[in-house]
Design a protein that fits this description.
Number of helices: 13
CATH topology of the largest domain: Beta-galactosidase, Chain A, domain 5
Largest sheet: 10 strands, antiparallel
CATH class of the largest domain: Mainly Beta
Bound molecules: alpha-D-galactopyranose
Radius of gyration: 27 Å
């Protein structure tokens, strides 16, 4: 039986191999788009086509015009930004990549992996291009593997994951930039001749200024529902680079990968350099479709346990900061229980004895319970939480150290810092030398020791509160240019160990807000902290930004005391992702508490639509003084619509909002939910029933002009 299955599998693979290379073309397809490579007589691999599939497969062979080398190396004829630059063992600074062969593996009914081997005719130097195609989701992943058998080591200066070529009349780039507390500001501009670079040189907290996501719109600027574009990202938790080069023929190349800046990499014979994945989707129907493709892909293939459920929680950070004791925490756990959330999350400040963590100046690195604050230790807290019928979670920042810590005193050689220079502190802390295997053991041990001692811990928040400056790795000695790359590799090695032992332990990815959010890290994390800025007005924009790439299930949206908006507005904003609290529950009025308790219940009833449904962004806060979005479940029987009125002008008039993603032939009841106790819906359509066609063509009057007001609607398909 096994043999038969194996033979069948080989046949299917061969069939794919034949199909893939039919007519000297390598076709890599998803449901709606295709990437086609061709091989010239001189064995050069060229990109022939990328875009919407043509109706007739034979037409790809007819494509004329100057085709471009698929993965352009430096040193021979290419005078543009290269994908690859290498100096061979004998000092020759050029590479020539010629096609050797290609093969395709069918991973399952939805996923194929195509490998195209390229080799330098004069050197035992091989670069293999990999393309994984996710058929249903319309997503592709590209990476390279570089290996050589030269006599000595070679040096890689450029080692992109992907190079893609475009020939459009015009190009618009949408990028996401920001800083602490102002993450994911979206900006679109036309590309002009030359090179536009979006990159990071920040190392640990790589995405603080630029996020590793972009849209490239072709020919015309794209909207939510119109326009041709690709949405791209890199799965690398470290320095990244996207270079968009528009040349003299108006052709555009996108070169994506690790940022090679200050990172030349020496490769020993037989050692494989594997680049991270560049992930992209193509859409002919604007950004909304691209986001939905990526959300579906991320839930299934990138985000850890993307199809599972999540915990609602109460965090103590903003209500106590570093100042708490067992009694206070006991009271907060009681509040979590009263509120009805699943879990209580203890934040920073629970550790350090010789140098207690009573502020951000000391204790980081000393992961033992502070005896004064917690005389009975974590075990007591886990038990106390259980008694309150909530789960218990805990904050760590295991890659970092305060100079005022026992860890610093014991292991000064475990820390990244320049010789002969003053230590460059940020938030009073330094970064551990993670490439050092002993440090990796230590960092893994922070999680493992906690979990071994307290298996009842149900959640971890993994923080990272500074980026790299003035770095030198005592462990890497003379190979300092490997630091940025090896740090990230070491981080992944630690994450792998954590996940091998605790595969489903929920862990939040945090970096002083959203300083480290990428598809590479999210393989190991269940959710992320978008920003320390929880003012709901700001959050509408920040969450809007992340929603372009990441599914709502992963976005930890907390209701806090930031911002003067009403509790109702804050709650409605938090509900559009994974809702949580970081609020003094004891300070809520009776009405506020009642509203919040009901909100938690309501959220639990509707969260599956938000978590696993399809997102339709209906009105952008960048275009109007409001934001409206909705989630529709897969069989179009249920939808949740969120409507936020932002700051309005005098006599602001809002038009009807046309819904999307519904079944035109189905009837839906419209019900405003999450109303504040005692208030009534002001929406004239509330309580009525409309066809999907009506809702999508005529729409609803969901918004009123009251600044900073909001509403949530539930739509239910009628039998
Ligand atoms: C970072 C996080 C916050 C909080 C603090 C604790 O800033 O983003 O949520 O955990 O660290 O020091």
């Amino acid at each position: 039986m096994k043999k038969l299955v194996l033979t069948l599998f080989i046949c299917v693979c061969l069939l794919f191999l034949l199909q893939a290379q039919e007519g000297n073309l390598i076709r890599i397809e998803t449901r709606n788009h295709i990437l086609v490579y061709g091989v010239t007589k001189g064995q050069q691999l060229q990109q022939v086509y990328l875009g919407e599939k043509l109706a007739n497969t034979a037409d790809y062979a007819k494509i004329t015009g100057k085709k471009q080398e698929a993965y352009m190396p430096f040193g021979m004829e290419n005078v543009f930004e290269p994908a690859l630059r290498v100096t061979h063992a004998d000092g020759n600074p050029s590479a020539d990549l010629r096609y050797i062969n290609s093969e395709r593996h069918t991973i399952d009914a939805n996923v194929t992996e195509t490998m195209i081997q390229l080799k330098d005719p004069q050197y035992p130097f091989t670069t293999t291009l990999h393309v994984k195609a996710y058929y249903q989701e319309d997503v592709m992943e590209q990476w390279v593997e570089i290996v050589h058998q030269e006599k000595q080591l070679i040096t890689l200066y450029n080692y992109a994951s992907s190079m893609l070529h475009f020939n459009a009349t015009n190009y618009w780039l949408t990028q996401f930039h920001g800083d602490w507390a102002k993450e994911m500001r979206m900006e679109t501009a036309p590309l002009t001749a030359g090179i536009k670079v979006i990159d990071s040189k920040l190392g640990t907290r790589a995405d603080e200024f630029e996020a590793p996501f972009f849209y490239l719109s072709l020919n015309t600027p794209s909207t939510e529902n119109t326009g041709e574009l690709i949405a791209g990202s890199i799965g690398w938790t470290g320095n990244f680079k996207f270079a968009f080069e528009l040349d003299e023929r108006h052709a555009l190349r996108i070169i994506s990968g690790i940022n090679p800046f200050a990172s030349e990499y020496q490769l020993n014979p037989s050692e494989v350099f594997k680049s991270p994945s560049f992930i992209f989707t193509y859409s002919n129907n604007g950004k909304g479709q691209a986001s939905r493709n990526l959300h579906q892909w991320a839930r299934k293939y990138s985000l850890l346990d993307g199809d599972q459920s999540r915990y609602t929680l109460l965090n103590n950070w903003e209500s106590t900061f570093f100042s708490f004791n067992e009694a206070k925490l006991g009271q907060l756990m009681g509040d979590a229980s009263k509120l009805g959330v699943d879990l209580f999350l203890l934040d920073d400040g629970w550790f350090g004895n010789k140098h207690p963590r009573n502020g951000d100046t000391a204790g980081l690195g000393d992961w033992q319970e502070n005896k004064e604050k917690l005389p009975n230790g974590i075990g007591y807290l886990v038990k106390a939480a259980k008694e309150q019928q909530v789960k218990f979670g805990i904050w760590i920042e295991p890659e970092m150290v305060n100079p005022k810590s026992e860890l610093y005193e014991k292991h000064p050689d475990w820390i990244l810092k320049l010789p002969n220079r003053e230590e460059l502190l940020s938030r009073n802390q330094l970064i551990l030398d993670l490439p050092n295997p002993q440090v990796q053991d230590f960092v893994f041990g922070v999680v493992d020791n906690l979990m071994q001692a307290h298996p009842g811990i149900a959640y971890i928040k993994w923080d990272c509160n500074r980026f790299m400056t003035g770095m030198f790795s005592p462990y890497l000695k003379k190979q300092q240019s490997h630091l940025y790359v090896d740090y990230t590799k070491a981080l992944y090695a630690v994450f792998e160990r954590v996940r091998a032992k605790y595969p489903h332990l929920p862990i939040m990815l945090c970096s002083g807000g959203g300083g480290r959010i990428d598809y590479g890290a999210l393989k190991y994390f269940n959710e992320y902290w978008p920003s320390d800025n929880t003012d709901p007005l700001e959050r509408v924009f920040i969450q809007w930004g992340y929603s372009q790439y990441l599914p709502a299930i992963a976005s930890c949206n907390h209701i806090t005391s930031w911002g003067k908006e009403s509790l109702k507005f804050k709650t409605d904003v938090a509900m559009m992702g994974k809702m949580g609290y970081d609020l003094q529950i004891a300070h809520l009025s009776e009405q506020e508490l009642l509203f919040s308790q009901q909100a938690v219940k309501t959220y639990k009833q509707i969260s599956d639509i938000i978590w696993y449904g399809n997102l339709y962004r209906l009105v952008s806060p960048y275009e109007e003084n409001r934001a409206v979005l909705m989630y529709v479940n897969n069989n179009q029987t249920k939808a949740i619509l969120f409507n936020y009125t932002l700051h309005t002008r005098f006599d602001e008039v809002f038009t009807n909002v046309k819904l999307e993603g519904l079944d035109a032939h189905k009837n839906y009841s419209v019900k405003e939910i999450n109303l504040y106790p005692g208030s009534q819906s002001a929406c004239p359509e509330n309580g009525k029933t409309y066809s999907g066609s009506y809702l999508m063509k005529v729409g609803l009057t969901v918004s009123d002009a009251t600044p900073l007001s909001s509403s949530v609607f539930e739509l239910e398909g009628m039998e």
